[in-house]
Design a protein that fits this description.
The protein contains 2 helices and 3 strands. It has 71 residues and is an alpha+beta fold. Strands 1-2-3 form a 3-stranded antiparallel beta sheet, covered by helices on one side. Strand 1 and strand 2 form a beta hairpin. Pfam families: Ldh_1_C (PF02866).
């Protein structure tokens, strides 16, 4: 599916992200919010790669209420 979107969209390959890790990203945001005692809706964070054990957290993507955790 991702391949088809990439081919039809005209985007470069690094601009197309598959959605298989959406569930992992949602769980990650929930766990971060719980640990940091903030509302999960205020947390932005993403997991990439394949769904499951091989998912990787993109730590630079994490922000709480728009503020990066790296700042």
């Amino acid at each position: 599916m991702t391949y088809i979107v990439w081919k039809l969209s005209g985007f470069s390959p690094n601009q197309v992200i598959r959605s298989s890790t959406n569930l992992d990203s949602s769980r990650f945001r929930f766990l971060l919010a719980d640990h940091l005692e903030v509302n999960a809706q205020d947390v932005q964070a993403y997991m990439v790669k394949e769904h499951g054990d091989s998912s990787i957290a993109i730590w630079s993507s994490i922000s709480i209420e728009g503020v990066s955790i790296l700042s």
